[in-house]
Amino acid sequence: MGEQGPDGGKKTAKATKRAAPVKKATAEKGAVSESAAKKTGAAKRTGVAKKTGVAKKTADVEKTGAAEKPASAASARKAPLAKKSAPPKKVTVAPKKATAAVKGVAPAKTVAARSPRDESRTALVRRARRINRELAEVYPYAHPELDFENPFQLLVATVLSAQTTDLRVNQTTPALFAKYPTPEDLAAANPEEVEEILRPCGFFRAKTKSVIGLSKALTEDFGGEVPGRLEDLVKLPGVGRKTAFVVLGNAFGRPGITVDTHFQRLVRRWQWTEETDPDKIEAAVGALFPKSDWTDLSHHVIWHGRRICHARKPACGACPIAPLCPAYGEGETDPEKAKKLLKYEKGGFPGQRLKPPQAYLDAGGTPAPPLGAG
């Protein structure tokens, strides 16, 4: 029950009237709160819907690869559009090595199988030794093409062969050795007389100085005998490693590699080594073969360089090792034209074109007299 005031029920009525606005305000606040809640819920639902729609559109764009344009500028401002997906990039595949077959295209035909620069060490050794075996069959009688009867004559002839042909040396040494048969005789010779004999060989003054000097060294230091050791030979005037190995391999039977101009040219063409220094070439090539093969290998390579694999016009079309040569094609590849480039010297006619090496074997397969003989 309500509290009665001094005037009875009036107090209750006034209190009721004063409380009514409060209740009304509370009701209005409740309505406002309810309305705000409704708006907030609607906004949330709208935001979720918008986000869901944008996500759906983005997913559709990713699937189809193209974004739909907005219906109007307003909607474009309200809902961010997904970025257009870039067209797929063209995939570029690196070309395979030239040796690989291309799909749908027939592989190019080559006459000779070229060896890649990056061939393995084992493959290089096998190819190099096979080349030597092939050359051994073509030149079974390969030998030094300088005429000599003893180590002294071979030593002098090899020194004289620098910057000239073996044939020219063979035409010059008979007169020299007839007049000065021993190191003692040549050591005491008149330089002017020796120069006159050696004039056809070219550089005759320098060569005269070398042969007289090495003859004096042999007489004074080695008792007139040619030493059989590399370290002793290279101390003689005009004697380098190339000359020393020629003497050791052919006069003493001690293996050695002769790195002359032909040898250097061919081993680089065959990609046995890329070295240019003779000593480094000797070491690189020597590592590919057993030591027992060194002397014969030198003869095979030098003979091939003089007869078929020339410096300017190699006869590729007539070469017996063309399938093993990476440089095939540098010279004439037509077999008939290549045969005309073959060179064999015999009987004092430099550059005379004769029959292939096999023709110099007799009926029983025995080597005929060596080239350069009379």
What does the model show?
The chain is an all-alpha fold. It has a domain at 125-307 and 344-360: Orthogonal Bundle (Endonuclease III, domain 1), CATH 1.10.340. The chain contains 14 helices and no strands. It is globular and about 55 Å long. The model is unreliable at 1-44, 46-84, 89-115 and 345-374 (pLDDT under 50).
Brief summary of the model shown:
It catalyses: 2'-deoxyribonucleotide-(2'-deoxyribose 5'-phosphate)-2'-deoxyribonucleotide-DNA = a 3'-end 2'-deoxyribonucleotide-(2,3-dehydro-2,3-deoxyribose 5'-phosphate)-DNA + a 5'-end 5'-phospho-2'-deoxyribonucleoside-DNA + H(+). The protein has 374 residues and is an all-alpha fold.
Label this structure with key terms.
Endonuclease III, domain 1; mainly alpha; 374 residues; globular; 0% strand
Oligomer: single chain
Mean pLDDT comes to 74
β-strand number: 0
Write the CATH homologous superfamily of the domain at 125-307 and 344-360: Hypothetical protein, domain 2
